[in-house]
Amino acid sequence: MTFDALGFHPDLLRGIQDRGFEQTTPVQSAVLPIVRSGRDLIACAETGTGKTAAFVLPLLERLHRAGAATGPADLAAGASRTRVLVLTPTRELAAQIEDDVQGFAYHAGIASMAVFGGAPMEPQTRALTAGVPFVVATPGRLLDHMRASTGSFDGLEALVLDEADRMLDMGFWPDVRRIVSGLPSERQTLLFSATMPDEIVGFAKAIMRDPAFVQVGERNAAARTITHAVETVPAGEKTDWLLRFLRRETGSVLVFVRTKRGAERLASQLSARKIRVTSLHADREQRDRTQAIEGFRAGRYQVLVGTDLAARGLDVDGITHVVNYDVPHSPETYVHRAGRTGRALATGTAVTLVSPGEERALAAVTRTVSFGERSSSPA
Prior knowledge:
The chain is built from 15 helices and 13 strands. By secondary structure, it is an alpha/beta fold.
C-alpha cells in the first residue's frame, strides 16, 4: 500500500515523502491501523522492517489533530504537555528515533526531544519542564529526571517500549517497571521487539488492556533476506582472515567482538593495515560514538568494529556484511547482530568466524539460524 493512500494530513505526508517513504512494509501495513485505533499492541518483527515509522507516524498524526485548535506554532514552542513517550535501550537508538520524529514532523511543527545519558541535563530539563509533546528516552536518564520531579507525565497518552528484549538483556527492566508505575494507567501502550522472551510477554500483558498481537516473519528469527555463513578459523588467524576479506569486499562492513578492549585492539590493527575503520563501544564518549556512527554512515569508514552495544538501533543503510569476529553468546544476540544488514528488504550476509573453542556457542546459535555450507578455507 502507498503512504499517499493512507489519509495522512498533508503536513505529515510531506515529511513522509521527504524521507523517501513510498510503499508500506508488511509490519507497517499490519501495525498502522492498530495504533491509529488506539488499541494496545505487542509486535514481534524482524529487525530492519520499518517498525519505527509504524508507531511514530500514527502517534504524530494524533498529536497533529490535537494541535489543530492551538496551531502548530504552539506545539513547536512546547505549549503542550508530554503526550508520547518512547523508551529504548541505547543512546544511539534514542537519537535515531528522535531524528525520524523530527523528519516526519518537520512540516507539522511538532516538537520532540531525545533524553539520554552522556548528554547535558539542562536542555533535557527545560524541554521536559515545558512539556515537549514527543519524548524519546533511555530508561536510566529518564528515571533520573522523574526522581528529580522534572516535568510531568500526568497527561501521557501513549507509551512505546521499543527493543524491549534488549532492555531486558541490558538490565533495564527494573527501571522500565519503575517508570511505568509512575505513568497514567489510562494510556495506549505499544511494545516492539525482534524477539519475544516469556518474561516480556508476561509483563506486557500485565500493563496492557486487551492488546493486539502482530508477528511479522518467524518469531526470534533473522530477516529472510540475510545469507548466513560460517568460517572455521583458528583464533590466532582471525585478524588475517578479516584483512583478506575486507580487501576483497567494497561495501560497508560491521564487525562484532565481545569486549570493549577487543574492539579497540582490532580497530587499531586494521587501521595500521590501511583499512578505513572506527570503533563503537561503551567506553567511548558520546560525542566520539556519534562521530563514529556518522562517519560510518557517510562512508568515511568502510568498517565499524563494535561490541553488542551496536547490535541494537544502529540503522545504517547499505551495510552489506556483518562479521561475527567472536561468536555471539546467544541466538537472540546473533539475530540482533545479523539484523544490522538485510534491512528494509535489502540483501545482506552475516559471516561468523568460529575457532575450535567456540563450537559450543555456535551450536546454540544454529538452533535458531540455518547456515549455508560451512567453510574452513581462507577468505
